[in-house]
Amino acid sequence: AQRVTQPEKLLSVFKGAPVELKCNYSYSGSPELFWYVQYSRQRLQLLLRHISRESIKGFTADLNKGETSFHLKKPFAQEEDSAMYYCALSGLGGSEKLVFGKGTKLTVNP
Amino acid sequence: GAGVSQSPSNKVTEKGKDVELRCDPISGHTALYWYRQSLGQGLEFLIYFQGNSAPDKSGLPSDRFSAERTGGSVSTLTIQRTQQEDSAVYLCASSLGPKGAQYFGPGTRLLVL
Fold it and tell me: Which residue range is the domain that position A10 belongs to?
């Protein structure tokens, strides 16, 4: 069964501190992994996808197939990073519906 | 260009009534998805349309839920005989193709009294 687990519902850090949002997944084939972000009163938007291997707004995420993880990291958090973050996966073939984790609310304090 | 739009933005209805939610995808996007976001369940997939293929309805929670996509563009999600547990934010997303990044609309917040 496809499942995405984000163990932290809430995460609070101070500005300038490193931040890591954890994501673990369960999938029988080869998934594609994503991070989506939802800022206050804005729509859900794509932050990263693992096949792009890019850094957006200073965030990076590496797919670790051995640990079935796709943790999101940023070395120096900014106040504007405060938002809900969702990890999601889809299969690499067929219907590309997304399976989402429950989300982590990140608060970056001044 | 314009993003995915949804209407209405908010809908309050009485238990037992039918509701229709509309989604206008990004022009040229062949894939369209409906998701539901609720406090208890998080974000759940409902239904997926891709071109002229038969839709993937595997996420619809009951036969009270149905959706159609006319002309490969606009989609309507219909909930018949609404129940209080249907209260949620209904999100629509579209992508250029089945492997494309999904772009989300602002959602329709449904409240069933």
Answer: 3-109
Does A65 contact chain B (CB < 8 Å)?
A: no
Q: Do A45 and B104 touch (CB under 8 A)?
A: yes
B98 to chain A, any CB pair closer than 8 A? The answer is: yes
Q: Is A80 left (phi over 0), alpha (psi -120 to 50) or beta?
A: alpha
CATH number at A72 reads 2.60.40.10
Give contacts of B2 with chain A, Cβ < 8 Å: none
C-alpha span between B81 and B66 (Å, rounded): 12
Contact A33, A3 (CB under 8 A): no
Decide if B35 touches A, using CB distance below 8 A: yes
Q: How far apart are CA B67 and CA A57, in angstroms?
A: 36
List, in order of start, the domains of chain B with CATH numbers.
5-99 (2.60.40.10)
pLDDT tens, residue order, chain B (113 aa): 579 999 999 999 999 999 999 999 999 999 999 999 998 778 999 999 998 888 999 999 999 999 999 887 999 999 999 999 999 999 999 998 877 889 999 999 999 99
